[in-house]
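Subject: Interface between my chains keeps coming out wrong

I've been trying for a while to get a sensible model of this assembly. When I model each chain on its own everything looks fine, but I need the whole thing in one frame so I can look at the contacts. Pasting all components below, labels as-is. Any help appreciated, I'm running out of ideas.
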Amino acid sequence: MTRIAIFASGSGSNAENIVNYFKENDNVTISLILTNKANAYVLERAKKLNIEALVFNKTQFLETDEITRFLAKKNINMIVLAGFLLKMPENLIKSFPDKIINIHPALLPKYGGKGMYGDNVHKAVVENKETESGITIHYVNENYDEGKIIFQAKCEVSSTDSYEDVAAKIHELEYEHFPKAIDSLIRK
Ligand code: GRF
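Reply #2:
Try treating it as a single job with all components included. I did that and got this:
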């Protein structure tokens, strides 16, 4: 049985999409949703989806192994970051080698790194007059957005696209591909 913990800092639409994708799957369960933001909308989604949620603070996460111990107690064996804005601490990465994956709303290595999240990414893509963007699903290491790439998908960016238009295209790619990428990793 694969027991997944999803980390999210914001709305959690990807988290909900992943939960729904695996709902009928007897071999995969989304056991936990965790967030560093007490007011994150992902907590409303967890309640609606009847999934255990945990709110933690930055100090707990970055300076203790409390979260790692909690995940071990819950027998988690895969971690999915879906809009989670903190860097993963070493103790967590060491406890889950090659078991932590993230989705980034751009074609890494472009538009990655500290500060490159959410609409900041799409604004930079539009400002630089890119003709394409996309998503990157990758393993997580101790640096932002630098782990081994697992999957990428592209979308066109037209000269008339606003950053909101790009965001909408990116979200469509995320909802289509993220759960399938997780599923194919589990089936490996
Ligand atoms: C997504 O665009 C994802 O690529 C990025 O953060 C956003 C999360 O959106 N990492 P949501 O919270 O899943 O709606």
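Reply #3:
Confirming on my end. The chain has seven helices and seven strands.
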